[in-house]
Amino acid sequence: MAGAVLVGMVAASPAAAPTLPRALLLEHVNLNTPDRDVARAFYADALGGRVNPTSTNDRQLHINAGVSQLHLPTVRSVLGREPVTVAQRWGGTLEFLTAEPLAAVAERVCAAGYAARAVAPRHEGAGAALDVDGPWASAITLRAAPAGLASAIAALRGHAGGSGPLLALSRATMHVPPGKACAIGRFYEQILGLAVEEEAGRVAVRFESGRSGLPAQLLAFEEAADAPAADAYDVDEAAAVHIALYVRDEAAFVAAFERAEAAGIVYINPRFEGGPPEFASARTLGEAVAYGQFRVKDCCDPATGRLGVVLEHEVRSPSHRAFPLGVAGSA
What we know:
- This protein is 19% helix and 28% strand.
- The chain is an alpha+beta fold and 331 residues long.
- The protein has one domain (25-316): Roll (2,3-Dihydroxybiphenyl 1,2-Dioxygenase, domain 1), CATH 3.10.180.
- The strands form 2 sheets. Strands 6-7-8-5-9-12-11-10 form an 8-stranded mixed β-sheet.
- A hairpin with a 5-residue loop joins β7 and β8.
- The N and C termini lie far apart (41 Å).
């Protein structure tokens, strides 16, 4: 798949000051879907994700992949309950780690009617991968999970229903227009307060949970001539995806909200109004602390106001009620 990003191929830039912490967890990617049955057959039955029995309901399907998830709503808003008619797709590639032999997954994927291709290692030290063309033009890569990952996940609180053989969301790569990577990097550094890794035409945020046995994750933005417009989220329903990430601690969370508020980019998403506040939108610092999350979507360089990309983020504190990295059995 074009533009795949690989751990180990980037060096931290001088701008990634050592005082900036790593992000903690890329917890979910949200993709609205018009057909729950198709989504479940692909992500659970074919790929090996586990349906979350608690958060899945009549308006959404949640698929566990270790301590991360895919959120697949079938209605657009909590109050309006308008059925999703436009499938959203991630503007790049989502990579997962699986405990199963890649050939076994490929057999199920092909039996479900989708294409699967074995590909050679893409960087030094990586094993072979499986590229999958899923429903609604979703681009998925699977790699073999490291030994011990399933046990490491089992030791954590995780998500209701646990994890099947799909054990981790290891990498999310989004393609952005040429010239946008730098502004995106400044957003993560100067608004969210996170270390970034940069090279020409590319910026990435590395997530390190600090939990034994859990591999790092990568959220990467790669410049590409055929990328969607930077503001595609605002003008194309298919591109209006969102992500959720955890910062390292409450102090980092508060500081990130204050910087986002000062920049005027705290976002209120009307889709989630009327639902549980901890999954909605915080308007004030007090609400953000009480809910454990706030939203932003305009990823700008705060010094210049230059837009890098519009990508909605749920920015979460470890105090959030759905935090999956606690010890198994903890509240």
